[in-house]
Structures are given as structure tokens and as C-alpha cells.
Amino acid sequence: MTRLLVVLLGIIQFSFAYHAVKSGKGAMWVTIIIVFPVVGCLAYYFMEVFPGTREERAVRRHIHDIAKALNPDGELKHRAEEVTSNASVDNRAKLADECLAKGMFDEAIRLYESCLEGVHANDARVLFSCARAYFYNGNNRQAEEILARLEKAHPKYRRDEALLLEARVLDAVGETDRSLAIYERLRNIYVGFEAKYRHALLLKRIGREREADELFAFIAQSARRTALESEQEWVKLARAEREGKAA
Length: 247
Known about the structure:
Elements (H helix, E strand, L loop, with lengths): L1 H21 L4 H9 L1 H13 L4 H17 L3 H12 L3 H13 L3 H11 L8 H13 L3 H14 L5 H14 L3 H11 L7 H12 L3 H13 L7 H18 L1
Helix pairs in contact: 1-2, 1-3, 2-3, 5-6, 6-7, 7-8, 8-9, 9-10, 10-11, 11-12, 12-13, 13-14
């Protein structure tokens, strides 16, 4: 057992030392890893490897969520103060993002629209966010117009997300066939379950229940393939749809 641990530690040491050399971290780290095997490897991992990893991003996101829960209006106030001192397009767009997240859609729309001027008239990020704000506010035709501007100016910008939003907008204004056509396009290219779930809901609503159930079943059966917490929401909803049918 002791020999196995020594071999394992040696492999870890070599891996970190190799990483330090290849990434240009310097000879100092190699020395620390060799002289202090356990402490050196741990220090190198947390100081040089961990930052920038998916796990680190997840930790930062959870910390941000906790901070928002403790002070839900803190970020909104901070962004408002920034706009007061410097009403740049970037600051206004960030304040609009906070308004959108808070459900303050009218305020978000006004801010986004104020950003779409001059050299920023066709800013991709602002156009996409503005379309979302219009949609969530129930202004579906305006959302459709903004999405058309986005597609014309930036046809590749967040294409899957923009297509999903367009499908939802078209469904909301009663253009079912166009909405279904977009969902079919997304079926094999959209990463995640949201597009499939919303497609299934639309199919169910128009009476194509067999096709809808196939999509709900696919989502439910594919749950083990993803560990992403954000995807579990769609898995639970799909299972609820199937359980509701069985009941």
C-alpha cells in the first residue's frame, strides 16, 4: 500500500512538474514540487491549475449567487451608481442586464434601446439582450424585429440561443409552422435540453402528442449523460410531463 502511494505521488509530482515547465511557470515551481512533494503539489494545483478550470468557475458562480441572495439589490445599486458617474454604453448595458434579471423589463428595454446608437447601433450583445427583454415583456413583434436586425448584422452571434428565442417569439405570435421549423433545425445542434423541451411542449399543444412524448422520453432517458445542474431543470420538467400523462 505504501509503495502504491509513493508511486502515485511520484506520478502526480511528475505531472505537475511537467505542466509547470510546459506552461512556463518557472524552475521555482519545479523545485518546490520536488522538494516538498505533498505541500508543493497542493500549492501548485490551487495557485496555478485550479484558477480558470470549470470547477473554479462553478465555485465563483456559487459565491456570486450567495452574495446576491444575501444582498439581492446590491449589484443593481452598484450598476446604477456606475451609470450615474459614467453613462457609457457599457455601463448602461450592464445596468440593463441587472434590470432584466430583476424582471424590470420596461427599464431594461429603455436602457438597451438607449445603447443602440452611433457605432453601437448594431451591437450584437445589446441586440440579443434587448430582444430578450422585449419578449419577456410580452412585446413579441418588437422582439422579432430586433432579432431580425441581429441576424442581418451578426448572423453567427450566439446562433443557437438566438434561434431558440426566435422560435419562442414566433410561437407567441401564432406563427406555429415557422416556430416548428426552427425547433427542427435546433433538434440536432442545440447543446442541452431546453430547445427539445420547448419543442415538445409546442408539439403537445397542437395535438402531436406521440412526437412530444418521444422528445420528453429522450430528455428523461438522457439525464445520466449530463451532470450540469442547469440541465436538470429540463429533465425534471420532462419527467413531470410524462408522469402527468401516465396519471
